[in-house]
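Notes continue from the previous slide.

Worked example: a multi-chain complex. Inputs as given:
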Amino acid sequence: MDIEKWDEYRSINKALIDFVEEIDHGSKMKKVVAHICQSGGKKTRPVVLLLSSRICGSEIGNALDAALSIELIHSASLIHDDLLDRGILRRGAKTAHEVYGIPAAMLAGDYLISKSIELISAYGKEVGIEFGRAGMEMAEGEAMDVDLLERNSNNLAEYFNCIEKKTASLFAASAAMGAYVAGADEDTVSKFRLFGNKLGTAYQIVDDMLEYTSKVNNKESIHMSPSLVDVYRQDMADSKAIAKTREIVEQLVSEAHEIIDLFPPSQSRNRLHEITTYATKGLFSEVGTRKC
Ligand code: FPP
Ligand code: MG
């Protein structure tokens, strides 16, 4: 998948560069924000927002600030997650706190969240509520993650509850917000939200699985969250647990595709298909260098 060539990707990338450019030249804040915002990544979430918006009839320009706000809150969550997980490497580079220290990293996260609120405020109540709820769920999910790790819990229901909140919530909000921005009705918005939920859940299962199998080479942290394989391994052999995890991911991807297929064929629909397959394919490749 050549996402770097997509106009959705290029637009969000340019918006991100412009945003960093506007921060006080030479300030430490600018350096920390640039460190995370210009460290690569596929911009999956904002691209999902822009594609969902296009499918519902909007132009990129109308949805761009909403897409940027999604990328900024995501970047903030990565900085904060790395603080909690004592992350060392992210996207092949040292984490923000390793380079700039814990206070500067924490404050850059606060700065990014605040900017994302400023950007989203122009979109009205429904979009604002969707966005705020996703942020709250991410924090709840991350708190569950910390708790699961402390209790060494490999409970199936708790695992799914945690990843749906910490990860799938922002994918779901991205797709739903894209639909809202285009003026879609509640039924359509719900379909996009569900699509994002399936994609985000599959994405996190693969992310955990890549760490479990040590297939990932651009990320490193002291604390590792439990994976779905760990959950299944309690009741079956390793190979069976891996096969069952794969099945679950394939099922989620196919359900996500089915939802998108409810909409008429278009380039945007094809791209949402592709991005869903891409974001979850690391599980099936030799080395996981996926950069979402
Ligand atoms: C990655 O988990 C973590 C997340 C997807 C969510 C992080 C959320 C927070 C820190 C709450 C902050 C909330 C807001 C609104 C900024 P992981 O450690 O399994 O993934 P990794 O392998 O990429 O580190
Ligand atoms: Mg982490």
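Summary box: Residues 73, 76-77, 80-81, 85, 87, 113, 135, 138-139, 142, 166-167, 207, 219, 221, 225 surround farnesyl diphosphate (ligand 1) (CB under 6 Å). The domain at 3-287 is CATH 1.10.600.10 (Farnesyl Diphosphate Synthase).
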